[in-house]
Each structure stands twice: as structure tokens, then as C-alpha cells.
């Protein structure tokens, strides 16, 4: 039970309407897993039937473009939920991978059993619907950002909102997330630093 405390606290704080018996039902759906750096929780073309809560560590979600270059679409740290939502909801083979970039520890939630429970438990139905709503809103914001913002704007937002990434993620992977080369990222960082020193 001790290793589940973060998840239980997360559920209690985010979904205050949950009762003790609801949380017990959720706990019955989960298992825990340790992953060494480089290991995957979602692989390309697998059918993802799990929702993951990151207890410890850091993950990247990515796919390969036509040149077999890695395109990183997101990072997940402690306290984040992750998974391939399209694969989970539609039962399709996954089009992305999610890989540990640090030694990590996750709680896995069986989404098929959770879906069955939501048919009989309104509180769990509310949780499931809120999770899906949050995913949709977050995805739409990411799409808008990627379409409308230049790399410098995205870089500055990353510095402001997720500064921990720069201490935990290799520069080439931050560049892949921003959609630029590692060389371009170095130049961008240098220009931003010089501008800050001059002001």
C-alpha cells in the first residue's frame, strides 16, 4: 500500500467526490512496475490497454518520421498520467512509443476493467470522463502550439513551464520535441542568454 500513496493522494486531491470504496475499487485494478532506463511501457503497433501513473522517473512519447528520425511529442514526469489514448479508446495498434529516459516506477491501471466498472459506478464514470476531457484539452492545446508558435516561442514556454526538463533530458531530445536540430537549439539558447545578459 505504501508504494500506492502518491496515486491515492492524487485521486483524493483531484477527484474530491471519490469515496473510500471507490478508491478501493481502483486499487484492485492496478499493478506496479519498475523500469530501467530505455525500457518501454508502450511499443509501436502494440494495443495499449493500460493507463500509467508515473510514481518515479521520466518518460518520452515519440514516433519516427519518414526519415526514421525521432519526433518527440511529450514528456511525462512524476505525478503524470500517460498512455496511448488513441490505442486505448479505439483498440487500434499504437502509433507511438513511450520509453523511460530515467530508471522509473509506474502504477498500471487496467483500462478494460476500469471501463466495465464505470458502467456500474457513477463516481468512476465521472473520473474516466474527466481524464478523457483533460486529455482532449491538453492535446488540442499542443496542436495549436505546434501549428502557431515558432521554435523560439515554444522554447521560452518550455523554460517557463517545465524547466526541470533541461536538467533531466539530453539536448538532442529537447530539440526533437521542439522540432529543430540540436545545433539550432544551441544557437537559440545562446541568443536567448545573450539577450538576457544585455537587458
Detailed description of the structure:
It is a single chain. The chain has 9 helices and 8 strands. The protein has helices at 5-14, 20-27, 85-90, 111-118, 122-148, 151-161, 165-168, 171-178, 182-198, and strands at 30-35, 40-42, 50-56, 59-64, 70-76, 81-82, 97-100, 104-110. The strands form 2 sheets. The protein has a 4-stranded antiparallel beta sheet with strand order 1-8-3-6. It folds into 2 domains: 2-148, Sandwich (Jelly Rolls); 150-199. Helix 4 (111-118) packs across helix 5 (122-148) and helix 8 crosses helix 9. Helices cover 50% and strands 21% of the residues. By secondary structure, the chain is α+β, with helices and mostly antiparallel strands. The protein starts with a helix and ends with a helix. The mean pLDDT is 88.
Number of strands: 8
Helix content: 40-55%
Global outline: elongated
User: Number of helical segments?
Assistant: 9
The percentage of residues in β strands lies in 15-25%
Count of individual domains: 2
Spell out the blueprint of helices and strands.
Elements: H1 5-14, H2 20-27, E1 30-35, E2 40-42, E3 50-56, E4 59-64, E5 70-76, E6 81-82, H3 85-90, E7 97-100, E8 104-110, H4 111-118, H5 122-148, H6 151-161, H7 165-168, H8 171-178, H9 182-198
